[in-house]
Amino acid sequence: MIWINLLFAWCWMTLGLLSGAAQGIGFHHESWMGGYNSWRRRLTRLGHIAFLGTGMLNLALALTVDAVGMSEASARWPGVLLIVGAVSMPLVCYLAAWRMPLRNLFFVPVLSLTAGCCWFVVVLIGLFFRNGVL
User: Going by fewer Cβ within 10 Å, which terminus of the chain is more open, N or C?
Assistant: First the structure.
């Protein structure tokens, strides 16, 4: 299962670079997408960075599982939650840029990413206690 997070991470970070390149085509125009401080431009920038940041979270999970010798079963649900959050974060960013009321959907990626990280931390601490590290 964790190999999915690893593959997903690299694909997602690549999408972040590609989306940034696509958005960068018009960035030099001051009024592009309503200007630098416009809602639409800020949310599309956030969407581009969300690809990279959530990709890195998935990469960190996959590499940590391998580095500490954790069973993949222990990290299954945190991994699923991180993928759900990673998919939904840029999606909600771009949807909210398109229609501002859709910003109310941000609870989906925020809860998913937070729950995945918290769950993983608890599992990791438990592993460290069992192995006498803590």
Answer: C
